[in-house]
Amino acid sequence: MSALGDILHRGRHVAGHHPYPRVEVDAAGWEDAAFQTADGRCTLLSLWGEVDGVHMALAGPDAMEIAVISLPCAGGRFPSVGQHHPPAIRLERSIRDLYGLEPQGAIDERPWLDHGRWGRRRPLGAATSDAGSGEAYDFLPVEGDSLHQIPVGPVHAGIIEPGHFRFTANGETVVRLEQRLGYVHKGLDGLMQGADLGRAAKLAGRASGDSTVAYATAFAQAVEAALGIAVPPRAQWLRALMIELERLANHLGDIGAICNDASFALMLAHCGILRERVLRAAAAAFDHRLMMDRVIPGGVAVDLASEGAAQFRALLAEIRARFPALVELYDDTTSLQDRTVGTGRLDPALARQFGAGGFVGRAAGRGFDARSLAAPLPYAELGFKPVTRSEGDVNARVWVRIDEVNHSLALIERLLDGVPMGEIAAALPSVAEPREGLALVEGFRGDVLAWLRIGADGRIARCHLRDPSWFQWPLLEAVIEGNIVADFPLCNKSFNCSYSGHDL
Amino acid sequence: MSKLLLQALILPPVTEPAPKPAADALAEIAAKVDAAAKRRLGRSLSIREVDAGSCNGCELEIHALSNAFYDLERFGLRFVASPRHADVLLVTGPVTRNMREALERTWRATPDPKWVVAVGDCAADCGLFAGSYAVAGGVSAVVPVDLHIRGCPPSPIRLLEGLLALLES
């Protein structure tokens, strides 16, 4: 029996959780799951809390098995997973900040999302009020000769999201980067609680605006799994079409922006034109450039008319005509390669340990791509195969994006060719008892996880959204070590982690 | 690379004609900014973008202003890296409680005369995030706002229409 199968076998099965099983375990079972994960027999997909318990989503080695393990927390405590498995540390700190549940044995007891400014502590648990005047953050101590620190942020020099980076450098070489995030915490979990499904879907689509389609789809799939409804095939194909368009637009933007951070502005200018073309085609077909609120629980909100499909075919023709010359330009410009090859190298073992998704994981040999799952989206019919590289450097992350752009172009063509006719949305039934669902959808940045419980009143009782950035941000700290300060923008852009998706 | 550069010289630019300044933006500006400040600022403005809590959707469209289609710099509008170099703060997001002080300090670091433009529905009234314990309010709850550009997110054309109103006297 697999490690995950063994954990499931010993737990108490919880009814009404779909499509993957959920079991309740005792503290010993919880710790066992943590050990199995630390030993690499399972991958931690997420860890989240609610008022009276904690949950972790685990995947088997090839992600063919997925399950949720739950521990009721009498006394407001749970055995720390992070003490055995570092990828859980920030998630645990967030659980304590929001719900007040204490991870027993935790290595890092500092708050994470809570900067002492909310005017209350444990806002979603046993809340108490406080002054909200902020508190100093204890950065990790640094000792040694000739070290200096460079604090950056939260307001950065570019048009990007806010966060704080504390560099410790020896001359030009970075010896440690420590991140402090949470600045854009908007209280998404709290807003979700009690929201009707329509409002909750809109909130999910604004967890991270650049991945709005992926989030809306993950949320919708979790709702549909919970309610046990079948979505019309046409809606599934249109969702996949929008997800691939979102990937295309973001990858084109990233390829240009990474090169621009090596002062190669020509690439940004050309990729910027192609990105704009994608957004304009999306606006023409779906009436929104980023396709926000176009995926709804039950299906999609707008149908694809034949003029829209023609727009996308013209788009494919234009990108296919122009993109190869840009790839050649990237590949032939040695001064650019000099910046990207060997820079910010991610150890494949770390990528595996953290379950890093998206281009971060796939550029370092971790082949996981949620599009390979036997999911409701039609990727199996489209002949999907993940792209993997092994070098783990900035160059490999650029190449995974290049390969995925080409791959998405082929997928979009097949989606346009094969999209079945029919309804675009199914009605949502009302339920008499609480239902739970989980979904994993591959956004451009990696796998977005949505878990939710719908109450007997048909409203969201608890919704947890896990951005792929949770497991990518810590790796950025690791890859910058030993690189020069000037290469940080390049490394950072090649990761392009979401602040909003992480801060919630 | 030479072929790409040559094409750029020969082919017509993709840059599009400027939209007209938005009428509602002109009215809002006229009511808030006096003529003396306008004279001093002239027709070339430096913009510092501050994300005070957005979902990053607004940032994507603000970025698009610099692409070849919209080419913001042709109007004398440019993004700068420091508030100390800025005439305009372009602020997005519902202002989160965790970002409130950073926004206030950025505003204080911007020399007078200065304008604040609140971009997006969240920046106007917190949008879907209204009522959260973690949100301090719209941008005007924290710093004085001269112009609102609504939308979720506003398209680059809407942003241009609003920003061009800043240049009209």
Largest sheet of chain B: 5 strands, parallel
Helix and strand sequence of chain B: HHHEHEEEHEHEEH
Radius of gyration of chain A: 22 Å
Helix content of chain A: 25-40%
Strand order within the widest beta sheet of chain B: 2-1-3-5-7
Number of separate helices of chain A:
16
How far apart are the termini of chain B?
43 Å
Helix content of chain B: 25-40%
pLDDT < 50 runs, ≥5 residues of chain A: none
| Helix and strand composition category of chain B | alpha/beta
Rg of chain B, Å, rounded = 17 Å
- Tell me the name of the CATH class of the largest domain in chain A: Mainly Alpha
Q: Quote the average pLDDT of chain A.
A: 95
Which descriptor suits the 3D outline of chain B? Answer: globular
Helix tally of chain B equals 7
The domain count of chain A comes to: 2
Question: Which structural class should the secondary elements of chain A be placed in?
Answer: alpha+beta
Largest interchain contact:
A-B, 54 and 50 residues
The fraction of residues assigned to DSSP E strands of chain B is 15-25%
Distance between the termini of chain A: 37 Å
Keywords:
heterodimer; A: 504 residues; alpha+beta; Beta Polymerase, domain 2; Cytochrome-c3 Hydrogenase, chain B; 2 domains; five-stranded mixed sheet; four-stranded mixed sheet; 16 helices; 40% helix; 17% strand; globular; B: 169 residues; alpha/beta; five-stranded parallel sheet; 7 helices; 36% helix
